[in-house]
Every structure is written in structure tokens, then in C-alpha cells.
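User: Fold this; C-alpha cells only.

Assistant: Input:
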Amino acid sequence: NIAIPVYSFMNGTGLMLAMGGATKFSIAKGNNKKEAEHWFTDTLITASFFMAVLVLAGIFFSGAITELLGADAEVFDMTKIYLKTLLICSPFFILNNIVICFVRNDGNPKLATTGMIVGSFSNVLLDWVFIFVTKWGMFGAVFATCLSPVISLSILSMHFIRKKNTFRIIRTKPAFSIAKSILSLGFPSLIMEFSSGIVIIIFNMIMFKLEGNIGIAAYGVIANISIVAIAMYTGISQGIQPIISRSYGNSDLKSCRKVLSYALVTEVIISAVVYLIIFCFSDGITAIFNSENNLQLQAIAVKGLKLYFPAIIFAGFNIIISVFFTSCEKALPAHIISLLRGLFVIVPMAFIMSAVWGITGVWLSYPVTELIVSVIGAFIYFLQLKKLH
């Protein structure tokens, strides 16, 4: 838990580079296939800087980072081992994110999905092996995590072995303008990933003040379920990105809008089903997490589920519309939406509403934030519609 912000930043960096580079790749494939060949190499060149910084941070500053994150004496050594290994292995995570996006955008989404699923589930299996069988403790846990992207990359390599790839590493010169373009388009992905860790920390602080550790445990139930729900919308948005970028590269705005409409209809249906399940089965869902049958935790979490989760329909819209802008090379609107929902609205809203309405205000701050941002996002969309060409 202490290492979550570092992992979020590392993973967010990989997604930033992947989404930015793959978006430029898809748009170029639509209107200039020769230019498209450069974007994979350009993305790797840009990524090498971040890889070097993270590896050096792991080698020389893992202790300082552990202390900065607030690890006490009891968990300091375990946290340092975890962070040091994670940061040293960061190139595998970043490279895996990049290759997954490029393979998906290169017309092989099934292989990209297979790589992600096998890599992720191998982490679960290897955790058990390295912690309980080999008795490697915390190093075993992080080693299993670090092997996950390596396994995923080995599966993704089939795209190259079978010669289905239209991108490869070529000789090109590094250029700041190219790196800036990649980072600008991918920046919303970094914000969405990293800000989730920040928001969890802030909500934990507020819940501890209001209800103590029981409040944090209750929020933990909601946060875990929320991660699954949000992942669905992230999946939809990443699925439409290559299609919209290709259509935009072909100057086919009608197809861009059509794909967006399909995505939003899908999002609304998923949101309705998810909220109906949560509303009707909130007691049973909470009980899964509440193994000690704590009545206070049960009451807080059940109420929280019903008040917190109307946000998902607006959150889904915000995630999808942000990626839509990114896919059409409209970086500024995507930045605005990501920063508003990730930091600038949710943080003050949580503090203000919790101060006025207590724990009810905490739960409602999330749907209110997503509603406000979705209204702003819709307004920006209609303003930008005429500029898309």
C-alpha cells in the first residue's frame, strides 16, 4: 500500500508513452504510412529517458523514497526492497505498455489482450510460488510482479515472429518536438493513473478522521469495486482509440463520431447494470470483504456503495471523451478533463463536502465531481466539434 503511488506513477508513465505514441502511429497509418514507421522508434527513444531516471532512482534513492512515503521502522526494509526491485525493473513495465498499445493499434487486439491477461494472471500464480513455496518473502512478491511484463512481452513477440507487424525499430534522430508531441497526447493517461493513488490517500485521511480505521476499511471496499468498474470504461476507451485515430487520420469525422456514440451507449448500459447490481446486492457485496462481520463497517460501506456509485455513468463518459480528444490529437481538452476529475475538483470537493455533511459528503463528493466534469466535457466537445477536421 505504501508503494502504490510509485507503482501508479511508473505504470502511468508507461501508459502516457504508449497512448501518445500509438495514437500518432494510428493517425499516421491513416494518411502517411511512411511516417507511421517512425513513431514506434520515437516512442522508445522518449521512453529511454524515463526508464533511466526510474532505474537510477531505484539504485540510489530507494531508501529516501521509502522514507518520504512514510514507512515506519517496522515495514521500512520490506518497503525498500519492494520499491528498489520495482524501480530497477521499470523498463519492462514501460516497454510492455508501449508494445501492447502498438500491437493493438497494428490490427492485432487479440494478441495484445492475450499478453495482458497471461502476464497479469501469472503474477497471481507466481506470488504464491515465490512467497509460500520458495519462502522469498517480500522480494518474492515483487519479483513475481516484475516477471509479469516479461511474460507478456514474450507473448507479444509473436506479432514480430509471425511478421504481422507494420512497425519496427528504425534509424532516426531524437527530436524534442517529437517527444513533446508524444508526451502531450499521453499526459491524460498519466494523470488518470497517478491521481487515483493521490485520491485514495486523501479519502483515507478524511475517512480516518471521521470514522477511524473502520472508515478506511469501509472505503477500501468501495475503492476496490470502483477499480473494477473504472477498468471497464478504460477498456472501452482504449478499444476505440485506434479506430478513432485511424478514422481521424483519413479525415473521416463521421466515423469518429459514430464510434464515440457506440462507446457512450455501451458505457451507459454497463453503468446501469453495474449500479443496479450494487444497489440491490450492496449487503452481500460488503459481506464478502467484511469477514469479521463488523456491523459498523457493514453499515458505512452499504450506505457508501449506494451514494458513491451513481458517479460511474459520469466517470465513464469523462474517461471516454478524454480518450476521444487524445485520439483526435486534441491534447488540451483531454488535459483539462483529466486534471479536473483527477485533482482540481475532487480534492476540494471531498474536503468541503465532508466538512459540511460528514461521511455522507465524502460519498457524494465523487458523483458530484464526475457530474461537474462531464458537463464541462460535453461543453468542450461541442465547442471542439467544428475544429475537428
